[in-house]
Amino acid sequence: MTAQIELQNVDKHYGTFHALKNIDLAIDKGSFVALVGPSGCGKSTLLRSIAGLESISSGTLKIAGETMNGVPPRKRDVAMVFQSYALYPHMTVERNLSYSLRLKGMSRADAKKKAEEVAKTTGLSELLHRFPRQLSGGQRQRVAMGRAIIRNPKAFLFDEPLSNLDASLRVQMRKEIRSLHDRLGATSVYVTHDQIEAMTMADYVVVMRNGVIEQRGRPLELYDFPANKFVAGFIGSPAMNFIASSIDASGTRLIFDEYSGESIALEQRLEPNRKVIAGIRPEFLRVASEAEANFHIEVGTVESTGSATYISSQDQMVTVVQSERTELKPNDRVGLKVDSARIHLFDAKTEARIVTDAG
Ligand SMILES: Nc1ncnc2c1ncn2[C@@H]1O[C@H](COP(=O)(O)OP(=O)(O)OP(=O)(O)O)[C@@H](O)[C@H]1O
């Protein structure tokens, strides 16, 4: 597989601020890659650097094998799609779509024909004569997509394109974007702070923090084998529970230090007395009888969405999510069980994953 976009040792400084730190990333032709991370981690800077809207301070950026450092945006042959749509308000949908072709000197008739083709692909055929103000948010987003598609670019670069839309439209549009990507055989880089969007749309997810790539992998790889506590807490919703813990003197039991020293047998022997952080996803904890419980919490809140019930501890450190409803109330003391194979262990100091035989 050839890399369509390649970044080698890329750094970006804004004055004294180091926004991208030694980024190495290869994006295969035809793949859909999501960049995620908390606000300010550098994902937009990375995307804008690929587009050429930001210059990189050092390193190499290649698109389709050609070095792009210093090449202006319009010569990079990539198309950006923004959340703000950036449509021309005084032009119809058809004109918005065909504008870039007209700029390149295509005849009015040919550009119109192209616009009609793209409108078909994006479900805009009935709306070609409308102005942007006469469209819904989702329809405007489709025009923005259509404008990118009509240019037949080497890659699509999306900067939080759905964040202006309401929840149900977002779900629909993310399916549409992914299916367009597949039909066009496109290469897409998609910035979002919404990890569900990243997990459901992308072939590969790149998790960033403070200008650094913390981990990249297939969505479920990140979920099953997070490289560190940060990634573990970022991927998955509700977020993973973290419990300060230690390995006992024999190296065979995990002691939940924060929960009265209650403990659970480990799958395999680990370094005795090591301080660790136990990571347990809310969906892998369950309310259990006294005989089965591994540790106990005092219930703080019980919330139900109908399909799921969230039970959180008073100290807010532990959340359980279950599909069954519950009679539990605040202040109840309840036992929780976890399958030890489902526990992620991180070093208490470095917060890196402690690799066991299971992964
Ligand atoms: N022109 C600029 N001058 C100085 N600092 C900047 C500039 N643009 C961005 N930064 C800083 O670089 C860091 C990364 O910004 P960036 O926009 O890439 O973050 P992000 O991950 O996309 O965040 P968000 O989700 O909030 O958009 C931030 O700390 C930001 O303040």
Automatic annotation (TrEMBL):
Keyword terms, alphabetized: ATP-binding, Nucleotide-binding, Transport
GO biological process: carbohydrate transport
GO cellular component: ATP-binding cassette (ABC) transporter complex, substrate-binding subunit-containing
Topology with respect to the bilayer: Peripheral membrane protein
MF annotations from Gene Ontology: ABC-type transporter activity; ATP binding; ATP hydrolysis activity
Localization terms from the record: Cell inner membrane
Segments forming domain ABC transporter: 5-235
Highest taxon listed in the record's lineage: Bacteria
Record InterPro entries: AAA+_ATPase, ABC_transporter-like_ATP-bd, ABC_transporter-like_CS, ABC_transpr_MalK-like, ABC_transpr_MalK/UgpC-like, Mo/tungstate-bd_C_term_dom, NA-bd_OB-fold, OB_MalK-like
Family membership: Belongs to the ABC transporter superfamily.
Protein name per UniProt: ABC transporter ATP-binding protein
Annotated source species: Devosia pacifica
Lineage: Bacteria, Pseudomonadati, Pseudomonadota, Alphaproteobacteria, Hyphomicrobiales
